[in-house]
């Protein structure tokens, strides 16, 4: 009985060790410099916005500063939290797949795919990007909700929102999960998540509230660089990129609930498709945004298609990794970026089609069960 936790614990340690070795190779990219500025500003002024160009929700500055105070103003202090959360994401994937499939092999395979995922490793360890942090909070929130712990789920989701804004897309849909049986429970879920998000944001922004608003709104409403995005730009297109998929996921969730046909596995598929659309519709999209999607999509594809899903998920992971790493290497070459953008959108379209087919086929199987001969 004690053998079962050994492999996932070992894979967690391997994932962390790989990322740690790479993280100690130096500082790369410009984003991490803005992160460090935010932590310095937080230490000196009590807010990450007062003395820096930090343009993210405030929680990551708190997390990074805590590791800096523990390990010093060095590479380990700067990158510890991204590599820790990225490593723990592999364990969350193991837990989710184990819960849905009751298969140790599928769960371990899913964990390995993230532990050794090149895109995740490069993003968290090489560049020190922290997208794994809101991603893990979102996954943990979902797992808590599926375990009928809605208040824990709402709290974890709030932490995700105060790390990066995209987890807000899951607020209303998760509030509509059958775990929240009555309308009062739905309202309570939304209220708790919103209150915690606002409390954290205001506590860390109040000293320089105007600058905090300016930095974050400017980044999300007036950003002109597109990265890999093929979506047209308008001043409010980034808001629509979040709002439209959120509405679609909320409608799908409400419909399943109203028809008494809510399946957690289907919700995973809808949530993964929602995240795919958030990335595809965003007027600026970068390789590390795929970290928002890949764990959720991997969990659904593996749970729905089992062994075939492992092969498909591995292929998606490698394809996205190749696109992302090539972009980071050749982002100044417009012809290469154009080709990579087309490849990215084609792969996203293929992924969302496979997930949609999986949901439709599951519904058809339940409507027309096979008769035993």
Structure description:
The protein has 15 helices and no strands. It is mainly alpha-helical and 373 residues long. The model has no long low-confidence stretch (mean pLDDT 93). The protein has one domain (6-220, 227-359).
Task: Map the helices and strands.
Blueprint: H1 6-23, H2 31-45, H3 59-71, H4 75-101, H5 104-115, H6 118-126, H7 132-146, H8 150-161, H9 171-175, H10 183-205, H11 209-221, H12 237-258, H13 264-281, H14 290-330, H15 334-367
> What does the main sheet amount to?
none
* Secondary-structure class: mainly alpha
Q: Approximately how much helix is present in the residues?
A: over 70%
The helix-strand sequence is HHHHHHHHHHHHHHH
Short description:
The chain contains 15 helices and no strands. It has helices spanning about 5-25, 30-45, 60-70, 75-100, 105-115, 120-125, 130-145, 150-160, 170-175, 185-205, 210-220, 235-260, 265-280, 290-330, 335-365.
């Amino acid at each position: 009985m004690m053998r079962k936790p050994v492999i996932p614990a070992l894979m967690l340690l391997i994932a962390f060790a790989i990322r740690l070795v790479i993280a100690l190779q130096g500082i790369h990219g410009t984003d991490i410099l803005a992160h460090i500025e935010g932590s310095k500003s937080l230490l000196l002024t009590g807010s990450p916005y007062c003395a820096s160009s930090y343009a993210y929700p405030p929680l990551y500055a708190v997390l990074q500063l805590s590791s800096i105070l523990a390990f010093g103003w060095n590479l380990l202090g700067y990158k510890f939290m991204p590599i820790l959360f990225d490593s723990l994401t592999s364990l969350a994937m193991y837990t989710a797949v184990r819960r849905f499939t009751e298969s140790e092999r599928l769960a371990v395979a899913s964990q390995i795919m993230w532990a050794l995922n090149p895109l995740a490793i490069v993003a968290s360890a090489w560049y020190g990007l922290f997208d794994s942090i809101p991603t893990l909070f979102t996954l943990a929130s979902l797992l808590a909700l599926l375990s009928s712990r809605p208040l824990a789920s709402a709290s974890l989701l709030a932490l995700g929102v105060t790390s990066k804004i995209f987890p807000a897309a899951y607020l209303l849909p998760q509030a509509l999960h059958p775990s929240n049986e009555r309308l009062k429970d739905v309202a309570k879920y939304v209220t708790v998540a919103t209150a915690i998000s606002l409390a954290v944001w205001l506590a860390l922004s109040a000293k320089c509230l105007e600058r905090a608003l300016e930095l974050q709104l400017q980044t999300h409403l007036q950003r002109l660089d597109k990265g890999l995005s093929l979506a047209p730009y308008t001043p409010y297109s980034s808001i629509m990129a979040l709002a439209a998929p959120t509405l679609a996921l909320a409608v799908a969730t409400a419909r399943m609930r109203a028809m008494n046909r809510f399946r957690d596995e289907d919700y995973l598929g809808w949530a993964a498709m929602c995240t795919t659309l958030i990335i595809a519709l965003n007027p600026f999209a970068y390789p590390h945004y795929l970290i928002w999607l890949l764990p959720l999509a991997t969990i659904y594809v593996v749970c729905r298609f089992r062994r075939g899903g492992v092969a498909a998920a591995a292929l998606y992971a490698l394809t996205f990794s190749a696109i992302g790493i090539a972009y980071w290497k050749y982002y100044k070459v417009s012809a290469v970026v154009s080709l990579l953008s087309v490849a990215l959108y084609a792969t996203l379209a293929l992924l969302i089609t496979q997930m949609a087919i999986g949901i439709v086929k599951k519904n058809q199987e339940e409507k027309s069960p096979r008769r035993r001969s």
